[in-house]
Each structure stands twice: as structure tokens, then as C-alpha cells.
Design brief:
- The protein has 507 residues and is of the alpha+beta class.
- It has three domains: 9-87 and 179-349 and 388-499, Outer membrane efflux proteins (OEP) (Up-down Bundle), CATH 1.20.1600; 88-102 and 164-178 and 351-386, Outer membrane efflux proteins (OEP) (Single Sheet); 107-161, no CATH class.
- The chain has ten helices and eight strands.
- It has helices spanning 9-21, 30-42, 51-61, 63-84, 113-117, 180-247, 253-288, 325-346, 393-459, 465-499; strands spanning 47-49, 89-98, 103-105, 159-161, 165-178, 296-298, 351-364, 375-385.
- The protein has a four-stranded antiparallel beta sheet, with no helix packed on it. A two-stranded parallel ribbon has the order 1-6. It has a two-stranded antiparallel ribbon with strand order 3-4.
- It is elongated, with a radius of gyration of 44 Å.
- The model is unreliable at 1-26, 117-142 and 144-154 (pLDDT under 50).
């Protein structure tokens, strides 16, 4: 008998509403998480956790979630750094230079005239032109203090200028006034933060999916262990019953051997099932981000989650992808590329900045600081930059950004198709699992009844051990099939919720 409750898009949307309304209960209480982990780390017996507690631990300890949160913080810093570019940029500077070889200066007049100007040259004397009287400096020309005697110059008619030591210190400031590229970059920085937030949400969704699947798998492994353990116990009871019959010569030696063989065959299944439980718990701990040696166990049974199967699935139902994290990331990327195109276009617009510079300089031949004469210098003004020609660089950058934008658009269309296929596949799996579950329920009831009848008949000698083993096998298979159907449904439902952007934990 099929048990169904009609579901449509409204029901699927109800998943979202229920998820969001329940988000408050998923608030991470660090003290609660730490208490659980400390207890599990020190306890000799396993600390049993619920699915809700597992989700809280995952949100607190999962590495991927932590990295995603750090990425949000990083992009936030980057955004603030971009905004900081709007404010004045002030820098202080200082320098010391030691002259290795001084610069030689040459004048446009005969340097031999320096002799007459300095009183050291006469007609026919040293430093005077050959065959003539000493000349004087042109009107208005004054030689600096310390100018060497021209006649003593070894620089071929020139003289050295400058000092051996040169010091400078100053402040410079600049501030953009008109810069279209910078303002557009602010929008991109904001979108970059938004993209990081959506990626963090994606990490949480993925973490929730992994934790749920690992939790359900652990429950499945434990139930399989219980089934095989029960098979072993039944085999031991049947062996004891067969031994009694054999002792009273009511059973053949072959029956006794067959009973012992059944017990022997049941033991490896128990060991394998026990190993599967340990492995499933390790996988859960790995997803949670805790130590693998931590003594944790899962609470409940798969059948506790079977009530989620009480609705009908319409495979062709149109569902929305408005909250799908992949689609939202692609939309943000497209918007960023659209803004990038504008940035590249704005590179052709002139930019204007205001600047200020103040400096002090000193030159000396020694290190007697008390006698230094510092010369101040300051300037304020505007800087205008007008792009004219860049060899086609800006054009190709625009084309490159446009090409990337077109790629994202095509990728969005393809992703949307793939997501719709995934949704329909999950819905189909859920429907198949529901049918299998209800069929398995009937099979378990029938197999249990058949086993009980066969067991009672075997005790009075009306049934053989082979018939009893067949009944046991049928019961085992039906019980495992029932649990597997629940697991398949829960896995598909969890994947569907992730695709639709539902049932995630919001801080």
C-alpha cells in the first residue's frame, strides 16, 4: 500500500520556509560544542550525539567552513583597502647622498677672465689669454663663494659645483579628485565581498550535506550490524536446538554440520558489519573536523527519519533555483565582469588628482650639523592625466572582459540545465526509494512471520534446517532493503535541499 501526501512547488518551497524558521535552533553555541567535544575526548563510553548536535559541531569545527569565513574577512579587508584609495595618501621621505665626483660646470664666456675678476690675472700673466690683457666678467655675473682660481682649474676651462654631502627630508600628499576607474573599482570590491559570502554559504551547504549523509550512513552501518548480529544469535539458537535433536537422535549429523556451518558463516558478516560501523563513524568525525579518536556515536535509528518520506514526488515539477548557491555565484561573477567592462572603458576618461609636496634640503662638505643651512621648498597643485594612445591595450582589455562575460553567461545556461537534471534525478530517486521502502515494509512483515512459523515448525520437527535458513535469509534481506530504502531517500533529499539552497545553517 502506497502512503503518499501530495507535494508541489509550494511544498518544496515549504522546505525552505521550514529550514529558515528553524535556523534559530542551529545557532552555534561554542560552549555547548566544546562541552560535547571535551566529554567525548575524556569519556570511556561513547558520547551519543544527535543530528542537530552533529551539525553544530560541523559548523564550529569544519575546516572548509572556517576557511570560507576567513575568505569573507579577507575580501572585507580588500574592500576597505579600495575605499582607502579615496583618501589622501601622505608619505614622508628622507635621503642622504655622498658625492663621489662633483659635476663640472662650463660657462659661455672665456674662463680665463676669471683671473681678472678675482684680481689674480694681468696682461700676459698666468690665467690671461695668450697675447692679451686680462679680461673682466660680463656685467651682472657674480662667481659663487669658493670658486677656484680659473688658472688653477684642471677641468679644461670649467669648475666643480656642489657639495660632498647632500641631505633631504620632506612630506608628499596626493588625493584623487576625478577617477572613474577608482569609483567603479569600489563596486567590484563590494561584489567581491558578496561573492565570498555566497561561497561561504556554499561551504555551509556542502558541510550540512556531508554531515547528514555521514550521519545517515553511520545509522545504516549500525542497523546492518544489528541485523547480522541478530542473524548470528538466531544461528546460535538453532545450533543449540539442532544439538539437542542430534543428542536424542532426532536430527542427522548432516543437520548438525549444517547448523555449525550457518554459525560459522554468520561470524564474518558480524565482523564486517562492525568494521563498517567504525569506518562510518570515522568518516563522520572527519567531516565534523574533530579528532578521529574522539569517542563519539550517533543517536537514533534510520526509521526515526522515515516520516520524511510521507509525500508524493512529481518528477516534472518546476522548481526554482533562486537560492541555488552555484547560480547565485555565477550571477555575481557576471555582474562583476559587467562592472569590469565599465572599468576598462573608463580608462579612456581623464583623471584629476591634487598633490602637495614639502621638502627641505641641505648640502655641505663636512658633518658639522650645527652649521647646516636647510633650504625649504613646497608646492601644491593639480595633476591631470589624459589617456591618448596605449597601442590598443585598453581596447583589447575591454574585449577580454566582454569575452569572459559571455563565457559566464553560457556557463550559467549550462549549469541551470544540469541543476534541473539533478533535481529531477533526486526527485525520481526519492520516489523510487519511497516505493521500495513501503514494499520492504510489507516484505519485512511477511518474512518475520514466515521465520517465526518456520522456527516453531523446526522445533517440533516439521521443518528442516534448510527451510529455517531460507526464512532467516529472506528476513535479513528484507530488513536491510528497508533500511537501504530509507538511506537512499534521505541521501537524495539532502542533495535536493542543497541544490535548492535549503536546510542550511545561518549564523
Amino acid at each position: 500500500m502506497m502512503k503518499k501526501l501530495a507535494v508541489t512547488t509550494a511544498v518544496i518551497a515549504g522546505f525552505l520556509a521550514a529550514s529558515l524558521s528553524a535556523s534559530a535552533q542551529y545557532k552555534v553555541d561554542s560552549s555547548e560544542v566544546q562541552a560535547i567535544l571535551e566529554a567525548a575526548d575524556a569519556a570511556e563510553t561513547p558520547v551519543v550525539i544527535t543530528l542537530e548536535q552533529a551539525l553544530k559541531i560541523g559548523l564550529s569545527e569544519n575546516v572548509s567552513v572556517k576557511v570560507a569565513d576567513m575568505e569573507i574577512e579577507r575580501t572585507g579587508f580588500a574592500k576597505k583597502g579600495t575605499y582607502a584609495s579615496l583618501f589622501p595618501q601622505i608619505d614622508a621621505s628622507g635621503s642622504f647622498q655622498r658625492t663621489i665626483k662633483k659635476q663640472v660646470m662650463y660657462m659661455d664666456f672665456d674662463m680665463s677672465a676669471l683671473g681678472g675678476a678675482m684680481g689674480g690675472g694681468a696682461a700676459g700673466g698666468e690665467g690671461a689669454p695668450e697675447g692679451g690683457e686680462g679680461t673682466t666678467l660680463p656685467d651682472g655675473v657674480q662667481m659663487p663663494e669658493g670658486t677656484p682660481d680659473a688658472g688653477a682649474s684642471s677641468n679644461g676651462g670649467g669648475f666643480e659645483v656642489g657639495r660632498w654631502n647632500n641631505f633631504s627630508a620632506g612630506l608628499s600628499a596626493s588625493m584623487p579628485l576625478v577617477n572613474a576607474q577608482l569609483w567603479q573599482s569600489l563596486k567590484i570590491s563590494g561584489l567581491d565581498v558578496e561573492l565570498a559570502v555566497e561561497k561561504a554559504r556554499s561551504s555551509r551547504l556542502d558541510m550540512v550535506t556531508q554531515v547528514k549523509n555521514a550521519f545517515y550512513s553511520a545509522l545504516m552501518a549500525k542497523e546492518a550490524f544489528d541485523v547480522y548480529k541478530q542473524v548470528y544469535e538466531n544461528a546460535m539458537q538453532n545450533l543449540a536446538e539442532t544439538q539437542k535433536k542430534y543428542d536424542f537422535q532426532k536430527a542427522s549429523e548432516m543437520e548438525l554440520i549444517r547448523a555449525k556451518t550457518t554459525v560459522a558463516n554468520a561470524i564474518p558478516n558480524v565482523y564486517n558489519a562492525e568494521s563498517s560501523v567504525i569506518l562510518a563513524l570515522w568518516q563522520l568525525k572527519a567531516v565534523l573536523g574533530v579528532d578521529l579518536d574522539m569517542n563519539l556515536d550517533v543517536a537514533g535509528k534510520l526509521s526515526d527519519h522515515a516520516e520524511q518520506m510521507l509525500y508524493d514526488i512529481k518528477e516534472n515539477e518546476d522548481v526554482t533555483l533562486d537560492r541555488n548557491t552555484t547560480m547565485k555565484q555565477l550571477a555575481i561573477q557576471a555582474e562583476m565582469l559587467a562592472e569590469t567592462i565599465k572599468v576598462q572603458k573608463y580608462a579612456n576618461i581623464p583623471s584629476l588628482a591634487m598633490m602637495f609636496n614639502y621638502s627641505m634640503n641641505a648640502m655641505t662638505n663636512d658633518f658639522n650639523f650645527s652649521e647646516y643651512r636647510w633650504t625649504p621648498y613646497s608646492v601644491v597643485g593639480f595633476s591631470l592625466s589624459i589617456p591618448i594612445f596605449a597601442g590598443g591595450k585598453r581596447y583589447h582589455q575591454i574585449r577580454q572582459a566582454q569575452n569572459q562575460y559571455d563565457q559566464v553567461q553560457l556557463q550559467t545556461l549550462n549549469t541551470e540545465r544540469q541543476l534541473k537534471i539533478a533535481i529531477r534525478s533526486n526527485l525520481a530517486t526519492m520516489e523510487t526509494s519511497m516505493k521500495s521502502y513501503y514494499a520492504a515494509q510489507d516484505a519485512v512483515a511477511s518474512a518475520q512471520k514466515g521465520y517465526d512459523i518456520t522456527e516453531a515448525s523446526y522445533k517440533v520437527g516439521r521443518s528442516t534446517l534448510i527451510e529455517l535458513n531460507d526464512a532467516q535469509l529472506a528476513l535479513t534481506q528484507s530488513r536491510l532493503a528497508e533500511s537501504q530504502a530509507i538511506l537512499n531517500f534521505l541521501t537524495a533529499k539532502t542533495q535536493l535541499e542543497q541544490t535548492l539552497g535549503q536546510d542550511f545553517i545561518e549564523e
